[in-house]
Amino acid sequence: MGFFAPGDVALRREVLHGKPWLVTPTRVIVDEPDLLVVFVVPGTHFGFPTHHRPHPWQVKGSTHWRGNGKLQLHRPGDAYSVDLFWGGEERRFEGWYLNLQDPFRRTPFGFDTLDHELDYWVLPDGAWEDKDRVEFEAQVVDGKYTAEQGAEIRAVGVAIEEMLNARTQWWAPEWAEFEPDPSWPVPVLPAGWQDLPLP
């Protein structure tokens, strides 16, 4: 499957229990064999396919991305992305958010994954904390993840903690200086987005 060019729109789909759950059109920044970087442009609308388990954002009435956008760094095989956030009108860099998720799987129109709820917030000075651990454990009990998947996700968390404690992060700190092209239009969901097949 081919790579995307900078500026292309790639659909990030979350797939839960074999069915698309959340679809977000993203702007491709870098797509290379060892790194996929996409940007969620402010104002991007989410797509919520029909699913037996409504997405929490859908339940809360969250329809689009707010704020300064989000940059997401992915390495093939990693069960997490590294997301960058900026705050305020001056776009002050706030930190790195390690979002545990399925390793991304390429599709002809983007990539598929599934958020794993458990996350890590890393400040610019390297201090960190885990996020949503209670919610993650509740979702294991509730059946969103199997017991085996829960164990695998916890193991990824342990590996991330070891990396953060050793200060051996793999991503380039220069990504914190990223600025989106102001001429980019907000990506939109294509016609028929709900019917795009799974690989």
From TrEMBL:
Pfam annotation, one family: DUF402
Superkingdom per UniProt: Bacteria
Alphabetized GO MF terms: hydrolase activity
The entry's keywords: Hydrolase
InterPro entries xrefs: DUF402, FomD-like_sf, Ntdp-like
Domain called DUF402: residue spans: 51-167
Coiled-coil residues: none
PANTHER family assigned to the protein according to its UniProt record, in alphabetical order: PTHR39159, UPF0374 PROTEIN YGAC
Protein name, UniProt field: DUF402 domain-containing protein
Species: Saccharothrix violaceirubra
